[in-house]
Write a structure and sequence with these properties.
By secondary structure, the protein is α/β, with parallel strands linked by helices. About 45% of the residues lie in helices and about 15% in strands. The protein has helices at about 15-25, 35-50, 65-75, 100-130, 150-170, 190-195, 205-220, 230-245, and strands at about 5-10, 30-35, 55-60, 80-85, 135, 175-180, 185, 205, 225. It is globular, with a radius of gyration of 20 Å. InterPro entries: KR_dom, NAD(P)-bd_dom_sf, Sc_DH/Rdtase_CS, SDR_fam.
Length: about 260
């Protein structure tokens, strides 16, 4: 990624800030996007000094339509931008029966709408160029919707399916597309009190998570689960899913439903 320009969302701290650090040390120039301009400015100053790369700061709330349109326009028009890390997202909606509809709308706007539209803004340029990178941050909850809250895992399942479809379309045109599924990661999204109640062996440091994700990118992985010890388990899951395909759309209902096949 040396001399590339990568736009990173949710870059003010946590996963996004570590991506910024690691990509800067690979020689990439950066455009950092997040709501908190002061935190972005401090990070940008450090990375310029330590890595000697160009770092631009764009303060934006991607759940806001106007701010999202502004970042979309930059991705669409700036030929220097060769990569996108869609990291911005929120969780924490609690029980669905107690959910605040406005909070759910903001979560969907950030976790789904922003990821889709920012990807759509850059994808045509990258495809035409025959090179570039899109990294979408999803979550292990995309694979276990019954183990968390309702809306957040659903939003991350969308990102996973979306990223797989993007890779199928853009990969043959030379664009690298990767879905990253972190588990519980030590970032500011978790309080120390929350982390104290989770077994230590289930919590990964953010630096290790990002380093593993970038190693997965280097290996050409479509789906990177940093904590998964045996990639054969993921391969088996994907193979089992693929095995369903021939029987998912047929002319008649399955016999177990007791319908007369071909009845008028």
């Amino acid at each position: 990624m040396s001399n590339d320009t990568i736009l990173i969302t949710g870059a003010s701290d946590g996963i996004g800030a570590v991506y910024a650090d690691r990509l800067a040390r690979r020689g990439a120039n950066l455009i950092l996007v997040a709501r908190r301009a002061e935190k972005l400015a401090a990070l940008a100053e450090r990375l310029r000094a330590e890595a000697g790369v160009g770092v631009e700061v764009l303060a934006a709330d991607l759940a806001d339509a106007g701010d999202l349109a502004r970042i979309e326009a930059r991705l669409r028009e700036d030929e220097a931008i060769t990569g996108l890390v869609n990291n911005a997202g929120i969780a924490g909606e609690g029980r669905f029966v107690d959910a605040d509809p406005a909070y759910l709308t903001g979560l969907i706007n950030l976790n789904i709408l922003a990821v889709t539209r920012l990807s759509a803004a850059i994808a045509p340029r990258l495809a035409a160029r025959g090179a570039g990178t899109i990294i979408n941050m999803t979550s292990i909850t995309a694979l276990m919707p019954d183990g968390f809250t309702a809306t957040y895992p659903a939003s991350k399942a969308f990102v996973l399916a979306f990223t797989e479809a993007l890779r199928a379309e853009l990969g043959p045109q030379g664009v690298r597309v990767q879905a990253v599924l972190p588990g519980i990661t030590r970032t500011p999204i978790w309080t120390e009190e929350q982390l104290a109640g989770i077994p230590a062996h289930m919590v990964m440091d953010v630096e290790e998570m990002v380093d593993a994700a970038l190693a997965g990118l280097d290996l050409g992985e479509a789906i990177t689960i940093p904590a998964l010890p045996d990639i054969a388990q993921l391969d088996a899951y994907l193979a089992a899913r693929a095995a369903l395909r021939p029987n998912l759309s047929l002319a008649h209902a399955a016999p177990r439903y007791g319908l007369a096949a071909g009845a008028e």
